[in-house]
Amino acid sequence: MPRTRRRFLTGTGAAIAAGLAGCSGAGGSADDGGSSGDGSGGGSGDTASGETYEVGHGDHRTTVDAATFPDKLFVYAVQTGWSNWGAQMEAFEGEYGVALNDDQRSSGEALTDLRNNAQDPTHSAYNGGYTFGILAMEDGLTQAYKPANWDTVPEKLKTDNGHMTATRRMTTTVTYRRDLYEEEGIDPPETWEDLRKPEIAANTQFQPPNAAVGLAGALSINNAYGGSLDDVQPVIDYYNEMKDAGAVFAGNVEQKFTKGEVTTFVEYDYTGLDLKHNADSIAEEKVGVALLTGPDGEPGAFNQPYGYGMLEGAPNPGACKLFMDFVLSKAGQRRFLDAFVRPIRAPELDMPDQFPSQDAYAEAEFQVDYQQMVENQDSIIEDIGTGVGLTGY
After folding, report:
1. Under CATH, what is the fold of the domain 170-303+357-388?
2. What is the third-level CATH fold of 7-169+307-348?
């Protein structure tokens, strides 16, 4: 889907980052938009120049040599059309001359592929849902690397051993066609109970729970109806009722939404806000984004962290470390904000006014014990899939 309303912002962010890097050739800050290097500071696109860069945090500080960089770096689930990775990919290639593979996978698909290729890794890092990365770590598939600015990440959203670090977080919301709701005389949804209305349920789309975004949606509904990580029957019952009423479980919703084929979908705040404010395919005033609670006010908006970890046997460790530093720099974190993705370093940045109010987040948002979630995640996904009759994973 085209993203043009804020194209100036994303382009300007990349230009500023490149400009800062050009000024940092004599040892600029890694927080300016990348890691400091000698020589010209990168940006020439010549990865065989022998230029070096200082990367890492604490005991993980080291020097990487551009002469070892590949033409293309493979990182799971770094993809155009999601989380503003397209802008990150473009900026990184412009600054360091290394392209990023456009890896169109969900977190679950990435983990499956990573496990299948554990003996001969094809990618240098995992990126995706944080708890999926913890599962990869527990399988012995990751290695330690603490990127520059690792100390700015909250303690509970990184592992002490440096294997997984959160870079951003998103919260489950409902995005709906405000104009079509008004035409049909339907009130905007305020609770998950509202989606059960036949006129809404028949045109609603959910993501399957084997993707991190779908799992977040399932946990949101489950919590709203009194469930827990040990009891997902509430969301199974809810999904079965919605499915019987015509709701579907699939990805790639935006085109159907802009055409009016789907009038309501459950994903993240980022997805709805980016669609509302950044896309030319639909007018801003036609899109509504809501944080929902349970029928009795229970929190119903799960806050899902996303992050990355370097993989054991990474084919291109030097370029991978540089990219990880790049994403966690302030410039990299600001690029997430351009698409309404809340970066992990959000307290250090100015947040766009278009986000829902902090009061709305405070009322609806919740987190879980992420270690318990890791322990239960595979069974949760399997139980929901089996209980609702979902296939394909």
Report:
1. D-Maltodextrin-Binding Protein; domain 2 (3.40.190)
2. D-Maltodextrin-Binding Protein; domain 2 (3.40.190)
Domain 7-169+307-348 identical in fold to domain 170-303+357-388: yes
- Residue 228 phi/psi, 5-degree rounding, is -150, 180
Per domain, the residue ranges of the chain are 7-169+307-348, 170-303+357-388
Q: What is the pLDDT along the chain (393 residues), one digit of tens a residue?
A: 344 333 323 333 333 333 323 333 333 456 766 565 443 344 444 555 579 999 999 999 999 999 999 999 999 999 999 999 999 999 999 999 999 999 999 999 999 999 999 999 999 999 999 999 999 999 999 999 999 999 999 999 999 999 999 999 999 999 999 999 999 999 999 999 999 999 999 999 999 999 999 999 999 999 999 999 999 999 999 999 999 999 999 988 999 999 999 999 999 999 999 999 999 999 999 999 999 999 999 999 999 999 999 999 999 999 999 999 999 999 999 999 999 999 999 999 998 889 888 889 999 999 999 889 999 999 999 999 999 999 765
